[in-house]
Fold this protein.
Amino acid sequence: MNVFASFIAALLKYNTPLLYGTVGEIVTEKSGSLNLGVEGTMAIGAIGGLLIGCKADSLLIGILASFFIAALCGLFFAFMTVTLQANQNVTGLTITTFGLGLYFFIGNGFKSAGKWPDMLQCEGFLESTKPINIPLLSKIPFFGEAFFSQSIFVYLGIIIAVVMWWYLKYTKPGLRIRSVGENPAAADAVGINVTLYKYIHIGIGSGVMGIGGLLMAVNLSGSFEGSKCWIDGYGWISIALVIFAKWNTLLAILGTFVFGIFNTLQVFGPTLAEKFPGVLGWLNKIPPQFMKALPFVITAVVLVITSISNKKNDQPAAIGRNYYREER
Amino acid sequence: MKKVLSLVLALVMLFSFAVVTGCGGNSDSSEDDFLVGAIYINGKNDTAGYTFAHHNGITKAMEQLGMDVSKQLKIVDNVPEDDAQVTNAINTLASQGCKIIIGISFGYINAMEAAAEKYPEIIFSHATGYLSNDKNFNNYFGRIYQARYLAGIAAGKKSLALGNNNIGYVAAYGTEYAETCSGINAFALGVQAINPDAKVHVMKLNAWANESLERQFAEQLITQYGCGVIAQHCDSAQPQIAAQDKGVFGCGYNSDMTSQAANAHLTAPIWNWDVYYKLAIETAKNDPDNFMTKVGIYYGGLKEGFVDISPLTNNCEEGTKEIIDAVKAMMVSGEWDVFTNVKLSIAADGTITKVDGAMLDNKGGEVISADNTYYVYADGALKAVDGGAAAQDGVIKGSMNWYVAGVEEK
């Protein structure tokens, strides 16, 4: 297999969770809510989806379970911040703490009872997580190996990103939720049910994050180690990616790729440097710590550039502020 | 009336309090009151990993000594490697009356050294460190390289059977730490004893634990370098699971990883921390004044049962067990050890022959000379290490910075 093709294949496989996290957070933020609970939401979606999916021995049920369990986290966030007017940052952080706590509680519980990993003997579930070769497309040299021989999660993630872009940009509910995110008072004045719209989109956003969590679990074969969570900071990176993607789910695909390149270069850098010493030999000289930091440097640069060009501010205007009707 | 009632109630409360504490006092005095303190880097409720292994070892040792873990073990967990926080943890444990305080993480070293001076009546025992004093502060570690050599034999035997001379090794670090470096070398020497043509490809994480990268590195070693056996020096079982996924084999680390990768796992070098903890706690309890002579700087190996390999699985080649048992016996009896001027050569039928000669590193330098002098790199050149056996252990534990021939770091 061509080393570049496997580079791209690995990049997609291991970084698509970022896409789910980012798209979920974009949908949430477009409704004017800043949910910092991505990490915890993904953790709960991951462990819930994996356990239920394995129990039912069906990947579809696993994906649906991770979506709905994570969506419940989102609805809790909505209840706290929309109905009870709690501070969004604090509530989000609470969800992260709670989610990781629940993750360890469930995992450690099953593990110390001796049931993990035997309970994950689910042939049907595992079989469906294997790469799917798309007919014809996967036969294209190089591109087939790189792009069209992936697990269902990669295709689904890209489909969700595209659909969400279309939904937010071209549909009536999409327009309405954007107006809620920009100016909830105005939206309320024209008769949009702000509370309902916020609940639904925060729920959907969190649900999408949950599927990303499940992908992380699947990528690690659901092996529960007990001291570290599967998500391992990807939720936080997703929040940074939202800024990189300028609240656009199509750009989120690009952002995932850019962040992913540096993640995957940590693994492939030495191989590429060895195979092409003349052109890529320099890859071996870059410290891996620098590689890890680079995506964040790029995010900072993007922030600076967008603020200088300042054509249009992409950030929803009402983000982070709770809407209280009586204050109009 | 109300005043009287409240007075009576207060008196009743006072009495009941006195009764409760009185009872407590009575039952306590009849029991053993020796307290063990432990400082963990991760959570005490972990179900796998480094802290789990130590916690398991301490509780096992205390049970063997007939102590009540729930009452006699005091723990401060999730303590990062920060002097102020470690000092806080030590003060907490000291104020609770612990007589021995165990710190399991390398970075606790300075805080523990300072505390040993502050609390001369408490014994401080520090895992993986290199500092000590002559009264109440020791360090302990194990000759895990001996177990890695044995795992290397199992891997080498497998590689011969597979006809694949490429063996992968997912390492946390490379030559930066003597711990990882000596482990890689011992494993490679074990492999080469049985398959002299084998190459050990090392990829390093630059972190002690990162599950996703551990998985990806193992996959990389298998798909890009064609490795048929994957060994590891990192926390999770991901390299083994990756090996199983791709239909190759592997040697885990720290614990028997067979349950996570039943079709791939051969054997894993493991620690029996309870062996040390039993010795240390028993001595601290019964003869604290002579702790440093009886326990001292502890560096146990196969002989003490402090390190070992997990039971060989059915994935191992036939005849592996006999060879490993024979080599293990040589190390237990002290007849032979890994980092010496004698190499083992194991024939296909299991005959072991000793070959005298210098040990070369992968740049061709003599790192252990024919007269058994150790060398380490300093400022780019090999320098001899004097000081006898203790200094040689010091090289294995603390300053080894070369790879033996046949090891290739990516």
